[in-house]
């Protein structure tokens, strides 16, 4: 988005207050001068899911990118959930299903989604007696997008939604609640987010902290190297908090659901990244 999303409108002014000259530019603008910038920070590159190969090539071409290009490459594919589960993070159970493979369908409602996607596009929910529809959707994803994910549906998402915890420079900043966006087998997904400010529980905070610690260990970086991160969690069927999604690329950060101190914290996170160069 040429000037990012509306929530980000105050970021250039917040950065200017701490001596950082910043401006928005589309990632595919060849005249933007990304190579000459002291730091390039990704914000609303929401077309990357349809242009992933091109986008990742651009990331590799930027000398000083936040978050790092290797982190971005990993986070653009939801296979990262399996990696984090192997690292000991409590994630929504996830099975990776490559083209031609048959998943181990659980005998419960399931969610079938593309490994590369955003905004619930391509994500569908199926009851146990809708196996044929689920298999058809899986085949469509394999044809259009390749690798897909099958997950047991978490009932709390419809009743409670999910909680997003925002970290800036590796430090907790604020949280907001997102209402359900998921469609069923016949309807499309509800793509409009309903956001409200919230206070996370201690269990949600611990899960989010564990998630960022696992990322830092996996990539050999400090949490402060992550200019922004959003950790989306929900209550699983067994009552535990589970990681639904980790956004290290272009997350909405919910500045509209918090006060002016959050953009100021974002500016400090950018200053921290600059000082590390």
TrEMBL record:
Name the UniProt record assigns to this protein: ATP-grasp domain-containing protein
Source organism per UniProt: Streptoalloteichus hindustanus
Source organism phylogeny: Bacteria, Bacillati, Actinomycetota, Actinomycetes, Pseudonocardiales
């Amino acid at each position: 988005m040429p000037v990012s999303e509306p929530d980000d409108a105050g970021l250039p002014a917040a950065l200017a207050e701490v001596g950082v000259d910043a401006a928005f530019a589309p990632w595919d603008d060849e005249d933007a001068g990304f190579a000459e910038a002291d730091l390039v920070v990704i914000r609303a590159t929401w077309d990357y899911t349809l242009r992933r190969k091109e986008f990742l090539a651009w990331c590799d071409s930027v000398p000083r990118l936040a978050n790092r290009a290797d982190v971005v490459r990993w986070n653009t594919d939801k296979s990262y959930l399996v990696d984090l589960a192997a690292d000991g993070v409590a994630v929504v159970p996830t099975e990776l299903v490559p083209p031609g493979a048959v998943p181990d369908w659980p005998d419960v409602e399931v969610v079938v989604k593309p490994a590369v996607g955003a905004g619930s596009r391509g994500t569908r929910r199926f009851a146990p007696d809708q196996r044929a529809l689920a298999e058809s959707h899986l085949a469509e994803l394999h044809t259009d997008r390749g690798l897909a994910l099958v997950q047991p549906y978490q009932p709390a998402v419809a009743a409670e939604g999910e909680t997003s915890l925002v970290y800036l420079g590796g430090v907790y900043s604020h949280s907001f609640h997102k209402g359900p966006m998921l469609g069923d087998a016949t309807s499309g997904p509800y793509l409009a987010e309903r956001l409200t400010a919230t206070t996370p529980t201690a269990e949600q905070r611990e899960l989010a902290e564990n998630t960022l610690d696992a990322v830092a260990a996996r990539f050999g970086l400090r949490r402060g190297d992550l200019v922004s991160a959003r950790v989306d969690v929900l209550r699983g069927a067994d009552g535990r908090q589970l990681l639904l999604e980790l956004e290290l690329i272009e997350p909405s950060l919910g500045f509209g659901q918090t006060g002016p101190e959050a953009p100021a914290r974002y500016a400090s996170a950018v200053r921290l990244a600059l000082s590390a160069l």
